[in-house]
Amino acid sequence: MTNTTPDLGEQTTTYLDPELVGNLQDRLSRIAGHVSAVSRMLGEQKDCDQILIQMAAIKAAMNQVIIKTLEGHISICIQTQTAEGQNSEALESLMKALNVVLKNS
Fold first, then answer.
1. Residue 73 CB partners (closer than 8 Å, separation 6+)
2. Per DSSP, what are the bridge partners of residue 62?
3. What pLDDT does 13 receive?
4. What was the pLDDT predicted at 15?
5. C-alpha to C-alpha distance for 29 and 43, rounded to whole angstroms
6. CA 31 to chain centroid
7. Can you tell me the distance from the alpha carbon of 4 to that of 59, in angstroms, rounded to the nearest whole number?
8. Where are the domains of the chain?
């Protein structure tokens, strides 16, 4: 399912599926809870090994959020652009997304 929302330039843009957005928000809420727990652990001077394990888990969970978002971007945003004949724009959008993801990984 795709949602179209008005852009500031009066164009309509395709956005992620509401189910995916909900899934991503759930994942991010869990990650936020883990980050709070790590912060608490630091304040309580817990074992460094345990803190690092939790941080690695946060990083892995965030990687999954990025992957799911990228999958949604491809299956909805990019696919919609190509279906509308906007192949070069779709390719440019995908390249930008991949550049951001890979640059910061």
1. 16, 93, 94, 97
2. none
3. 65
4. 86
5. 21
6. 12
7. 31
8. 16-103
- In terms of phi and psi (left: phi > 0; alpha: psi -120 to 50; beta: otherwise), the region of 11 is beta
pLDDT digits (tens, 9 = 90+) for 33-76: 999 999 999 999 999 999 999 999 999 999 999 999 999 999 99
CATH 1.20.58.1000 fits 16-103, yes or no: yes
Provide the pLDDT for residue 104: 81
24 CB-side CA count, 13 A: 16
**Is the CB of residue 34 less than 8 Å from the CB of residue 58?**
yes
Provide the b/e sequence for 4-43 (b: ≥16 CB within 10 Å): eeeeeeeeeebbbeeebeeebeebeeebeeeeeebeebee
The two three-digit tokens of residue 1, written as one number: 């399912």
